[in-house]
Amino acid sequence: MRAAVFDGPGMPLRLAEVPEPHAGPGEAVLRVHACGICGSDLHATAPGGIARPGGILGHEVAGIISELGPDPIGTWSVGDRVFVVSRFTCGSCGWCLIGQGHRCDQIRFIGALGPDEPDGAYAELLRVHTNDLLRVPDGVGLDIAASVEPLATGLMLVREANLSIGDRVLVMGGGPIGLATVAWARFFGARRVVMSEMVSHRLSLGTVMGATDLIDASGVDDMGAAVTDLLGQPPDIVIECVGLPGVLSQAIDIVRHGGSVIAGGVCMQPDSIDHVAAYFKEPTVRFPATYTTEENAFVIEMIAAGRLDPTPMLSHRVTLDELPAAFEALRRPTDQCKVIVTP
Ligand SMILES: [Zn+2]
Ligand SMILES: [Zn+2]
After folding, report:
1. pLDDT band at residue 290, thresholds of 50, 70 and 90?
2. Which ligand is nearest to the CA of 39?
3. Which of 96, 104, 132, 217 has its Cα between 20 and 30 A from that of 277?
4. For residues 235 and 168, is the Cβ–Cβ distance under 8 A?
């Protein structure tokens, strides 16, 4: 099959013919119909990143089952339309057996995001465990289903923040995770949702996804003052979706006394925090790692019910042939949002 292979930092993805995967016990092979390019793929393939050279990235995936191994978990058939809860679990440990695959003893993450992690879906075919599949409802396109992963991440971030109805929220960063976070914060009853972002196209998407206020971060010296000015008080919750050194510290600086700070951007470098400033703020700071199967199921149900529309976030579609160039282009500030690969 054809796939885009990662050779190492500084090198663009390379299209290659690689062996086709086959389904072992409990597993399935999907024909990939859509796979989102994720910011974490860009971080992971940058110098110092965790991506596995020789691996295939891509973890935001929907497709059609083309092969089933023996003893699948669930009632699946070849031809079923599915999306992947973006991981590879064992399906048989205590956690998997009670439906908590996110705590699986042997959890791995598809998309070569680490030395031992299995290959992902920048390819024609993907091997997954049936424990990590969810059905795509009729009427929901597979390219839409591929956007569940960032939406589930945003949902997880908002849940971790313990948002109460009427809260004032700042979301830092308007990439796909930031936009998803904006949408869920509003969905669950935030009175005000301020989104800060430097790229003007992403700022306008913020409004579409539910932000009540926007801050153009490129023109602001003191973000805390700008937010407090808008809201009349510091925000109750700050959700950081940037993932660069210094942003978490800035979030702690901005949040109200005793508020919640959520580290949603995955900063790949060690970062420092001003402890004394944090003590004076007494914030709850959380680093949520991975969403649950239920969160993924909730997202697709809300999309199917018309309660949440991710289409404004899907900015471009590229073929596998166009992927290497599109991938490199996303490393620079861009007005693109979620780019979907359709092999
Ligand atoms: Zn992702
Ligand atoms: Zn397990």
Report:
1. confident
2. 1
3. 217
4. yes
How much is the average pLDDT of 315-340? 89
What is the set of domains in the chain, with CATH numbers? Answer: 2-147+310-341 (3.90.180.10), 151-286 (3.40.50.720)
Q: Give the span between the Cα atoms of 1 and 17, in whole angstroms.
A: 5
Q: How far apart are the first and last CA of the chain?
A: 11
Which ligand gives the minimal distance to the CA of 105?
2
pLDDT value for 40: 86
For ion ligand 1, residues whose CB falls within 5 Å: 38, 60, 149
Q: Is the pLDDT of residue 23 over 80?
A: yes
As beta bridge partners, residue 262 has: 239, 286
The percent of the chain in helix, strand and coil, each rounded to the nearest 5, is: 30, 25, 45
Ligand nearest to the CA of 95: 2
Please, are residues 95 and 105 in contact by the beta-carbon 8 Å criterion?
A: yes
Q: Which ligand sits closest to the CA of 61?
A: 1
Give the HSE-up count for residue 16: Cα atoms under 13 Å, Cβ half-sphere.
13
* Separation of CA 338 and ligand 1 centre (Å): 10
Over residues 273-297, the mean pLDDT reads: 93
Rounded to an integer, what distance in angstroms lies between the CA atom of residue 85 and that of residue 62?
10
The arithmetic mean of pLDDT across residues 17-23, rounded, is: 98
Q: What is the CA radius of gyration of the chain?
A: 20
Chain segment 243-265, per-residue pLDDT in tens? 899 999 999 999 999 999 999 98
Neighbours of 92 (CB within 10 A): 17
